[in-house]
Write a structure and sequence with these properties.
Mean pLDDT: 82
Low-confidence stretches: 1-28, 45-56, 651-659
Strand order of the largest sheet: 4-5-3-8-9
Number of strands: 9
Distance between the termini: 29 Å
Structural class: alpha+beta
Shape: rod-shaped
């Protein structure tokens, strides 16, 4: 509602550091406008924040790929335009999903399409990921040198644009590629950089990637217990995060490590778990790795009748060239066992051709094993001299390789890296402790601030309540002043005429019944002159009290002048109204009115009575008629009540009186 005077508005604003009180003196209409303006400003700020907020599609899509790349690939294939992403970044994410699915041709095509779609305005993340996946694609094709170059480019881009996730991802792939080349020292250095970043971020996923990388390198230097330990750490984190593809990678690494460790049962159980995790019912292209793992393990166990079908199934599927070479070596071992030496030598020639196509693998343990198996085939064939020479060459090369892996530099590097890793973990724990202490301190400050705000809120509530009480009291007083006579507490003239007008408007002109009496104290000026105005005021209050005690339900009495009272009598005829008025006048005559200490006086009053009807249909007309009748009473000697009669009273002039 509209208030009759300005109100005080209290605004309580909480800004980042402290609360602010704004006390504004303004009309309530202005307060409403200020409130609406504040709401519009808040809505505008919220809209701006939403407009500036990055789309959640990138993060949600990345999370979906990590949790289930098989389903993510299907979703992206059918909703190519349904993601709010840069086209090159979308293709990079699709390639990320395919990286885990043994669909090399599709992966290569997507990577190339993504590179072709790159624009200067494409996000740095897209440039980084596509260079990274290009390196993975080149490595799988056997071009290790170009793969390393692309992976270094991806690492540099991630470092430049502070893309920590992509930087750790690139370092993990860079380390793996170095390990395949036999550069284990370089691989461990890359892992140390990535591990430090992961610890600084305190990101479990990044830490798990580095643990997996350590598992790869330690497996390649024949430290199988350390390799299993790191793989299992990464697997535990991946399982906790629910990242299926990375669980599969860690399981595969564990299976390969157990195979080289000649722990066949653990290797087979792990590869079987890997197969169950990765095989999707509607995808025949995700099965190369489990067939590869089971086939090579059965072959090394000498269970060739089980190994050869798995090897054949893996050879028929798309897979990396170096893995195909490993399958051919496993096939040759089984063919030698089955006395099919020509077929075994043919498989070894094919394996050697694949290694020759990957110069970076020449001289590694994987390529050297071809010579070991060839010596075994030659011996089975009966060509012992050739077998002996081949075997000697193999052992010489392996001795040199193992010496390199077991060199003092390598051992020192491993120990130093482990010490640095432990130191970094200790530093991280200290930092976490410091952060926890800081967070606790901030939490305590926040709690204290909340208590302060609560106290301020209570104070504000009390102040507002007090203001509302004062406002209510002021409003009631204003209403009372606008309707009541301040001296007697009766209705005032304005309010009485408003009420009387409402009553008369509802009365039928031809059969409504209502009367009114205008009563005036006789010779009241003498009381003021003889006893003073305070005594006169006391007399007026006493007269009002005397009249009020005689009123019936529905009858209304008002003070309309200095010593004049107007009485409205609903449902009352003119004669009855005159009788009621005369009883009131008699009450005055019979009472002593105090006018000072030990002094009293007697009063009389005159009255004029009028009745609702033709010529008296409005409040003004009724009052004027009663006033004329009052004038007649005064002319007749006072102390009486005269009923208004148009035939007699209208001839006499009426006292001037307007409501």
């Amino acid at each position: 509602m509209c208030l009759p005077f300005p109100a005080t508005a209290i605004l309580f604003l909480t800004l980042p550091d402290r609360p602010y009180w704004l006390i504004l003196n303004m009309p309530q209409a202005n307060i409403r406008r200020a409130f609406y303006l504040l709401v519009l400003l808040l809505l505008g700020a919220a809209g701006t924040a939403l407009a500036n907020n990055t789309s959640p599609d990138a993060d949600s899509l990345r999370e979906q790929i990590l949790q289930n790349p098989w389903q993510a690939d299907k979703d992206m294939a059918v909703a190519n335009d349904g993601y709010d992403l840069d086209p090159a970044l979308f293709l990079a994410y699709r390639a990320h999903a395919l990286q885990f699915l043994d669909r090399q041709e599709d992966f290569d095509a997507l990577v190339q399409e993504g590179i072709n779609s790159l624009q200067p305005s494409s996000p740095p993340q897209a440039h980084c990921l596509l260079r990274l996946f290009e390196g993975v694609s080149l490595r799988r094709a056997g071009d290790y040198e170009q793969a390393l170059a692309r992976l270094r480019e991806a690492t540099a881009l991630a470092t430049e644009f502070q893309l920590v996730d992509e930087q750790v991802f690139a370092l993990a792939e860079l380390s793996f590629t170095r390990s395949l080349q036999g550069d284990n020292e370089g691989a461990l250095n890359d892992l140390q950089i990535g591990h430090t970043l992961a610890l600084e971020q305190n990101d479990p996923f990044l830490i798990a990637q580095m643990e997996e990388g350590y598992g790869v390198v330690y497996g390649y230097v024949d430290d199988y217990p350390a390799a299993i330990r790191h793989y299992e750490r990464s697997l535990a984190i991946y399982r906790e995060l629910g990242y299926l593809a990375y669980q599969a990678e860690a399981l595969y690494g564990i299976g390969v490590t157990y195979r080289y460790w000649k722990k066949w049962d653990q290797a087979l159980a792990t590869f079987e778990e890997y197969r169950v995790l990765t095989e999707q019912p509607d995808s025949q292209q995700d099965r190369f790795s489990p067939y590869y793992g089971l086939g090579t393990t059965y072959a090394q166990m000498g269970r060739c009748r089980q190994a050869l079908p798995h090897i054949q199934q893996a050879m028929e599927l798309s897979g990396p060239l170096d893995f195909k070479a490993e399958l051919l070596k496993a096939r040759a071992r089984c063919l030698i066992q089955l006395k099919d030496v020509p077929a075994a030598l043919e498989a070894l020639d094919s394996a050697q051709a694949l290694f020759d196509a990957i110069p970076s693998l020449i001289g590694t343990r994987w390529e050297l094993e071809v010579h070991e198996i060839r010596a075994e085939a030659l011996a089975t064939q009966g060509n012992h001299a050739a077998a002996l020479q081949t075997f000697k060459d193999y052992h010489t090369a392996m001795h040199n390789l193992q010496a390199s892996n077991a060199s003092a530099n390598m051992e020192q590097l491993r120990l130093a890296l482990e010490d640095r890793q432990k130191s970094a973990e200790i530093a991280l724990l200290r930092e976490q402790t410091r952060r926890m202490e800081l967070e606790n301190h901030q939490a305590n400050r926040s709690l204290a601030r909340q208590r302060e705000l609560l106290i301020l809120g209570v104070i504000a509530g009390v102040v507002i309540l007090l203001l509302l009480v004062l406002l209510a009291r002021s409003t009631l007083r204003f209403r009372r002043l606008s309707t009541q006579d301040d001296l007697t507490g009766l209705h005032n003239r304005r309010h009485l005429f408003r009420l009387l007008g409402q009553q008369l408007a509802e009365l039928p002109p031809d059969r409504g019944q209502l009367a009114a009496a205008l009563i005036d104290i006789d010779d009241f000026k003498k009381i003021n002159d003889q006893h003073g105005h305070p005594a006169g005021d006391a007399v007026i209050r006493a007269v009002a009290s005397t009249f009020s005690r005689q009123l019936r339900h529905g009858e209304v009495l008002a003070r309309v002048g200095g010593e004049e009272f107007f009485l409205v009598l609903p449902r009352t005829s003119a004669e009855d109204a005159r009788a009621i008025t005369e009883r009131l006048l008699a009450q005055l005559r019979e009472r002593d009115f105090p006018v000072g200490p030990g002094r009293t006086t007697r009063l009389t009053a005159s009255a004029g009575v009028a009745e609702f009807g033709p010529g008296c249909a409005t409040a003004e007309q009724l009052y004027e008629a009663a006033d004329r009748a009052l004038y007649a009473s005064k002319a007749a000697g006072k102390n009486c009540a005269t009923l208004y009669d148009t035939d007699t009273i209208d001839e006499a002039p009426a006292a001037p009186s307007t409501p």
